[in-house]
Structures are given as structure tokens and as C-alpha cells.
Design a protein that fits this description.
Elements: H1 3-13, E1 26-31, H2 45-63, H3 65-72, E2 75-85, E3 94-104, E4 109-117, E5 120-133, E6 136-137, H4 140-147
Antiparallel strand pairs: 1-3, 2-5, 3-4, 4-5, 5-6
Helix pairs in contact: 1-2
Length: 155
């Protein structure tokens, strides 16, 4: 299954999934598919980063940020991505991707994305990203305030 199809499913299903506040955790339940594998028959390291895109899209959709971004023609941009791998994921294996915002500053939003399978940590990634409009970067605090008035960044 192509990742674009997975993305469309996540965005479409986001209409019926419970809305979220910015500091809630998005959880996606997924399976390792044949096109996720590398030559060692486990999920490709690069595929983890691509699957993390799906988790961020779910978070954007369920917080209402995706609709704001589309309306205002904002583009999500990743400034940095790191990931630590602990265990492999094998073909058809079920896993969960947990995505949460860990904080923000004047420019960047920081996210933590964690893969679990059978309650075991598989991999943990950290993302630094922002939303950019035609006039430049959108201040994260203004985005968060629109979603949840009075919110402040965690330490």
C-alpha cells in the first residue's frame, strides 16, 4: 500500500476520530507492510521517518491545525529530525506510533514520536518543525492560542 493512500486514510478518518488539544498524544495503530521492508526483511530505517510524517498529519488534522494550514496556505516544514532505533519491526508486525508536541519556542515546534510494539519501545524520534506562510514563519504560540486559548509551552 502506497504511503499516499495511508495519508489519505489518516486525513479522511481524522474527521471521525476524537479531536485533540495540542498537548494530547496522537496514537496510530499500524502494520508493517511489504513495501516498508528493506533487504534484511525488517522495516527500512528511512521508512520510520516517513511513517512519522503520518503521525504528524494525524496530530495536525485532529487539532484543527491542518484545516487552518490549508485555509491560510501554510506549509509544514521539518527543520531537524533524529531517531534512535532499539528493535526491528518485521513484516505484518503490529505497532503503534505515538506523536506528541513536547514544546515550542518563538520559531519552532518540537515533537516526540515513539514507536511501540507489544508495549516495547521500538524507536524514538524527535522533530523540530514549523509552519510557513507566504509572509514567513507562523509563530507557534499564535497557532496554539487559536486551538486552545491560554496554552503555554511545557518546559
Amino acid at each position: 500500500m502506497n504511503l499516499y493512500l495511508r495519508l489519505l486514510i489518516i486525513i479522511f478518518m481524522g474527521k471521525w476520530r476524537k479531536p485533540m488539544q495540542p498537548l494530547d498524544t496522537s496514537i496510530l495503530n499500524l502494520h508493517v507492510l511489504l513495501n516498508d521492508l528493506d533487504l534484511n526483511w525488517h522495516m527500512n530505517n528511512g521508512r520510520f521517518l516517513t511513517i512519522m510524517d503520518l503521525g504528524r498529519m494525524d496530530l495536525l488534522k485532529r487539532t484543527g491545525t491542518l484545516d487552518m494550514a490549508i485555509k491560510n496556505k501554510w506549509m509544514p516544514i521539518v527543520g531537524n529530525a533524529t531517531i534512535d532505533f532499539k528493535r526491528p519491526l518485521k513484516l505484518w508486525q503490529k505497532y503503534e506510533l505515538h506523536t506528541r508536541i513536547s514544546g515550542w519556542d518563538d520559531k519552532w515546534i518540537y515533537l516526540e514520536q515513539t514507536f511501540f510494539s507489544r508495549d516495547k519501545l521500538i524507536a524514538k524520534g524527535h522533530i523540530k518543525g514549523l509552519l510557513r506562510g507566504k509572509d514567513g514563519n507562523i509563530p507557534p504560540q499564535s497557532i496554539m492560542e487559536t486551538i486552545q486559548p491560554g496554552i503555554t509551552s511545557p518546559e
